[in-house]
Amino acid sequence: MAHKRLQAYLTYYQEELEKAYTSCFNKLEIPGNLKQSMLYSLDAGGKRLRPILLFASYEAYGQDVQKAMSSAIALEMIHTYSLIHDDLPAMDDDDYRRGMLTNHKKFDEATAILAGDALLTYSFELILNDPLLTADEKVTLTRELTACSGPKGMVGGQILDMEAEKQSVSLEAMEEIHALKTGELIRFAIFAGAYLANATEEQVRYLEKYAYYLGLIFQVQDDILDVSGEEEKLGKRVGSDELNEKSTYPKLLGLEGAIAQKEKYVQQAYENLKLAGAEDSLLKALTDYFSERDH
Amino acid sequence: MAHKRLQAYLTYYQEELEKAYTSCFNKLEIPGNLKQSMLYSLDAGGKRLRPILLFASYEAYGQDVQKAMSSAIALEMIHTYSLIHDDLPAMDDDDYRRGMLTNHKKFDEATAILAGDALLTYSFELILNDPLLTADEKVTLTRELTACSGPKGMVGGQILDMEAEKQSVSLEAMEEIHALKTGELIRFAIFAGAYLANATEEQVRYLEKYAYYLGLIFQVQDDILDVSGEEEKLGKRVGSDELNEKSTYPKLLGLEGAIAQKEKYVQQAYENLKLAGAEDSLLKALTDYFSERDH
Questions:
Q1: Which structural domains are found in chain A, ordered by start?
Q2: Does the complex come out with an ipTM higher than 0.85?
Q3: Residue B4's pLDDT band (boundaries 50, 70, 90)?
Q4: pLDDT tens sequence across B6-40
Q5: What is Dmax (Cα atoms) for chain B?
Q6: Which residues contact A196 (CB under 8 A, 6 or more apart)?
Q7: How many residue pairs from chains A and B have C-beta atoms closer than 8 A?
Q8: A151: which chain B residues are within 8 Å (Cβ-Cβ)?
Q9: How many helices (H) and strands (E) does chain A have?
């Protein structure tokens, strides 16, 4: 697919998502300071990759993504809450993200903790209140979302990641951490889109494998950019992983080895995409986009 | 009701709840450190008042509380997560709770933040996976629970409470803060029990009013105990509200005035309990218990 068409797609869905969540927040009657803090970090969001994957997965099998909108917003809210908590002094202690002050720097730590809690809780509420979804769909989506984001998923991965810091871990252990910490939300994106568009169970199974490799592609490229990227494009310092003594693909495999590993993941992703009958969908172009991104 | 029968009831349901959540955690495959941290604070729990209110509300209209168990555990987990985050250095900065080290003191701040996040997320998952509930029941329960605990409920109340600190607020403003910060989870307890036991919509409406007053009774008694309680029974320092310059009932109304205000709330609670057809239930005895507790 031409780069231009993908870029137009990304821009279109970024704007659709932002319009949709802004409309939700306009109707939400909550304390002003809390709303500002939640919206500050949502608005500071980057490329909206998770929602866009969800839309693309939906469009591989169905039409009219409105049915997937509440899940996409919920997913972006959960991603945002995890960044707010990750940036806290007790965690990564970051003052800036994407060139803007982190939530606890813009507001204060207590507000940032509560804004994260509120985004997490409200994300489920959004899906549960969506008039376009049946009760069964609501249950399936929220159940998957809790599993992907909670102790068995993202939060579990964050704990493992903390434990793995300052020690070298094997490639397998590192893959497990990434699969939980970043992969599970990507899996939800791919699952939710296909599920809502009535993909078959077999298609969903292959797509979930695809999502697993896509998550790893995302992570290995992140590690590669941390070694060889341009600070201006990244909006953060190059070499911060080295500084934090984190286990990364380049450290375990060398830069060339990391790039070769990424290629293996890309082939696996393609393969499963084909088996899911979605090789002609936007997911193919997004796979390349993930693999080749420079920020 | 005789004090002894209430005490036996409390003990029985405390144990049932603890058995049930321990069984859930035994089956839960998550990183060991995360599980320990989640369980540490759950196990440090006190009287399990919220789950017990849920069971009592259920028993006012139905039998076999097993159907209400997942909601009761979820509610206790959300209460526990809120305490873990409240105790953090950036919030209340408490080293001890109920005579035990707080979560971030026993583990570390990062683990405590993540344990809170995990308890919150897992609470919804428990309800969504409960085989005793229909899809409609799951949707109703989780939707109410997100509303009660999120930005429109408890978390909103915590933000208002922080904003009200170090300034004197009116009785009305203080009531609004309490209604959100502590009242909404109590409302969920009462709602969920009656709803699951198939109480009529009218009964539920009156019960929710009852829950509103019960929450205020809980809070005014908390404030009264902070002035006149015994440290040993409370497990915390008497006079800490004064120290923290918090607006309290005794400060706004004097100790006598606070006791009179509590009596008004008790009468309102009785009245709505009667209108809900539940004046002969355990909720009556629990109202008195809330009103007269010494710790």
A1: 3-292 (1.10.600.10)
A2: yes
A3: confident
A4: 899 999 999 999 999 999 999 999 999 999 999 99
A5: 52
A6: A58, A62, A67, A68, A71, A137, A141
A7: 147
A8: 28, 30-31, 34-35, 38, 118, 121-122
A9: 15, 2
